[in-house]
Design brief:
Elements lengths: L3 H25 L5 H4 L2 H11 L14 E4 L5 H11 L40 H15 L6 E6 L6 H12 L5 E7 L2 E2 L2 E2 H5 L4 H7 L3 E6 L3 H13 L5 E6 L22 H10 L13
Parallel strand pairs: 1-2, 2-3, 3-7, 6-7
Antiparallel strand pairs: 4-5
Length: 286
């Protein structure tokens, strides 16, 4: 469990990340706010407590790596990377602009520090993570860990289950799959589009250790990551129950905000929901 000071600090970081997601997508005029907002708390705990990394040396050879398989949620990743000091905060407002390092999906070749691989073609990120985990464990004899962030809609892809099968077979206990289980995708509720449940039973049958937690409770998130570090002989699946659009009243549990940016009126409402002054929406725009 987090101490009170750390909990307050992480809560404030997550609030800023959510604000940055709204501000980025508003000024870009496009993007995916819903599934970005749902992972803000998870990314905060991961990057500021559990991930071994050095923002001042992003290519540090002993670093853990994060693969955002649900690449459309990159505004959340860009926000946490800026918060951690990987690149200047003001660069966030170039999201989706021509020539920007902040593309609409993470692009390794654009040179943004902290981006490990290009992602966004759903279903592929976990396979990349399995390959990296195998290399670290069996070729490098390293204790580096790989964290793969998956969308629950993405888990309808067959390639995901091939990767899950391989990871369990090879006992990749240095791999952690983080499932953003907000139960919504672009076409509606996940169980209605193509049911993937029960996830814990399915992961367990493939020799994974499933851990379920509230993805907006910082103490529960902390506990889940701590448990994952203790697992031996199999990979861990952290199934975080979240709310798409978390923190913005009119976006919560609404599929339409999967891939639509707010207009000015709605962006100002979101800023108000998050407790920021209206003028912050236009400050530091480059």
């Amino acid at each position: 469990m987090l101490d009170e000071k750390t909990r307050e600090r992480f809560s404030e970081i997550a609030r800023r990340i959510r604000f940055d997601i709204i501000k980025m997508t508003y000024h870009a005029g496009s993007g995916h706010p819903g599934g970005s907002l749902s992972i803000a708390d998870i990314l905060t705990v991961l990057y500021f407590k559990y991930l071994r990394h050095k923002p001042e040396n992003p290519n540090w050879e002993e670093r853990d790596i994060v693969i955002l398989s649900k690449g459309h949620a990159c505004p959340a990743l860009y926000a946490v990377l800026a918060e951690a000091g990987y690149y200047p905060r003001e660069e966030m407002w170039t999201l989706r602009k021509f020539g920007s390092r902040l593309q609409g999906h993470p692009a390794k070749d654009k040179g943004l520090p902290g981006i490990e691989v290009s992602t966004g073609s759903l279903g592929q990120g976990l396979s990349i993570a399995v390959g990296a985990a195998m290399a670290f464990k069996y070729m490098d004899n390293s204790d580096r860990r790989v964290y793969a962030i998956l969308g629950d809609g993405e888990m309808q892809e067959g390639q995901i289950w091939e990767a899950i099968m391989a990871a369990g077979h090879y006992h990749l206990d240095n791999l952690v799959a983080i499932v953003d289980n907000n139960n919504l995708q672009i076409d509606g509720f996940v169980p209605d589009v193509m049911n993937i449940h029960p996830l814990p039973d399915k992961f367990r049958s493939f020799n994974w250790e499933p851990i379920e937690a509230d993805g907006h409770d910082l103490d529960a998130i902390d506990d889940a990551f701590a448990k994952a570090l203790e697992i031996r002989g199999k990979p861990a699946a952290l199934i975080f129950h979240t709310i798409k659009g978390r923190g913005v009243s009119y976006m919560e549990n609404e599929a339409q905000w999967h891939g639509k940016a707010p207009n000015r009126e709605l962006a100002l409402r979101a800023v108000q929901d998050l407790g920021f002054p209206a003028e912050a929406l236009d400050r530091d725009i480059v």
